[in-house]
């Protein structure tokens, strides 16, 4: 699903070496944590997978061909096939839960007749069908993050990237979000979660990649937080 082949990334202006000769292979259907101290390169890793940036050296593959060979149209299509979740849920405050989730279908051109079925399946997956008419402000932080997950997966992306998805949440809500992500993974979606949440990584064990100053220093198939 994702392959990094001798990938280095140096940001041009500051000449920061954010990633240093990374070799990683993430298979279809895996659930992988990406851990590391602040500045270790986690967001840079995500940016490369999305092709927001290109590596200075090496190649990133998501499927067959290196991303650097994709032209604009294919890059747009590539990004549409990746679900994203951030620390800040980025819900649209004036739209209901249903409309927030449906928004993702509208922008990707899914026919209107498919929206209702897809949105309710997605809200069911995150356990929030009963809140479908609520506005984001009427939900807890954890519920809002679950809506963000519903929105990220409603288009059935094969790959989901989550950058600090529990950063704003208390321990109970964090665990709920992790359980939902695991359910999404059980349906076959490949998931990469960048996180500082030691307790979650220790509790819900999955393969864990540890970055230190841009280098992959550990790849633990059974998980564990080694910082
Ligand atoms: N646009 C940029 N221009 C220059 N340097 C950058 C840029 N983005 C990140 N960096 C630098 O690259 C390194 C890796 O940053 P990155 O954001 O990938 O780390 P991170 O592990 O996601 O950190 P955090 O946990 O704080 O989000 C850091 O030294 C950072 O200062």
TrEMBL record:
**Pfam families assigned to the protein according to its UniProt record, in alphabetical order:** ABC_tran
Quote the subcellular location field of this record.
Cell membrane
* KW Iron (keyword) present: no
Its membrane topology is listed as: Peripheral membrane protein
Q: ABC transporter domain: from which residue to which, for each copy?
A: 2-226
InterPro entries in the record: AAA+_ATPase, ABC_transporter-like_ATP-bd, ABC_transporter-like_CS, ABC_transpr_LolD-like, Cell_div_FtsE, P-loop_NTPase
Q: Which UniProt keywords apply?
A: ATP-binding, Cell cycle, Cell division, Cell membrane, Membrane, Nucleotide-binding
Q: Which domain of life is it from?
A: Bacteria
Q: A GO BP term, please?
A: cell division
Which GO MF terms does the UniProt record name? ATP binding; ATP hydrolysis activity; transmembrane transporter activity
Write out the similarity annotation. Answer: Belongs to the ABC transporter superfamily.
User: Subunit structure, briefly?
Assistant: Homodimer. Forms a membrane-associated complex with FtsX.
Q: What is this protein called?
A: Cell division ATP-binding protein FtsE
Q: Which gene encodes it?
A: ftsE
């Amino acid at each position: 699903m994702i392959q990094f082949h001798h990938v280095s990334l140096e940001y041009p202006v500051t000449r920061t070496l954010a990633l240093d000769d990374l070799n990683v292979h993430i298979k279809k259907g895996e659930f992988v944590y990406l851990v590391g101290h602040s500045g270790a390169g986690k967001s840079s890793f995500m940016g490369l997978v999305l092709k927001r940036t290109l590596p200075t050296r090496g190649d990133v593959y998501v499927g067959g061909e290196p991303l650097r060979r994709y032209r604009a149209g294919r890059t747009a299509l590539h990004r549409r096939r990746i679900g994203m979740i951030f620390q800040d849920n980025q819900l649209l405050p004036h739209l209901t839960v249903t409309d927030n989730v449906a928004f993702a279908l509208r922008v990707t051109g899914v026919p209107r007749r498919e929206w209702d079925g897809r949105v309710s399946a997605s809200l069911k997956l995150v356990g929030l069908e009963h809140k479908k008419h609520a506005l984001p402000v009427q939900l807890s932080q954890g519920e809002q993050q679950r809506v963000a997950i519903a929105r990220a997966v409603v288009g059935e992306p094969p790959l989901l990237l989550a950058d600090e998805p529990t950063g704003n949440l208390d321990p109970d809500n964090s665990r709920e979000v992790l359980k939902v992500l695991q359910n999404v993974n059980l349906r076959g979606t490949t998931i990469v979660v960048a996180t500082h949440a030691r307790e979650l990584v220790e509790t819900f064990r999955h393969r864990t990649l540890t970055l230190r100053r841009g280098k992959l220093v550990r790849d633990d198939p059974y998980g564990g937080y080694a910082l």
